[in-house]
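Quick one:
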Amino acid sequence: MHVGEVTAPEIPFEMSFRKKKAEQIVTGFERQINYHLLKLYGFEAAPETREHWKAGLDEWLAQIAVIKLQPDNKPISARLAFEWLYDEPFGGGEEQAAAIMLGFLARRGLTRNAEQPAAIVTKVRAFHEAVARRIARNDTAADVIAGL
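Output:
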């Protein structure tokens, strides 16, 4: 889905920011996005709970997809989107960071599935690679989220 197709009244159709401000907005969503991905890939949950997690991803990624960078009003590049959403929080220590976050979520009462942290990290990375390419086209990646 492209930004022009977004109909939620709380999501503006286009916002233009300096790079630093755009980074602050995107990284403000990073933790929520990554926790929801870890929940979807690493835990058992009822279908309605999984849909709730997907709805969160859909909202946050739609808000990121509408961002354009000043001065030329271009979308966030795939490289920057990937860096801000995946590489900075996980880069270099992906398995250890994922294991710590999975443990934190499990202590909150969620039931772990059989997926190992390394396999989960591979899936999270692939998700972010796909989404980063979509963000670079001002696309909300709704179909990527639906496939989770």
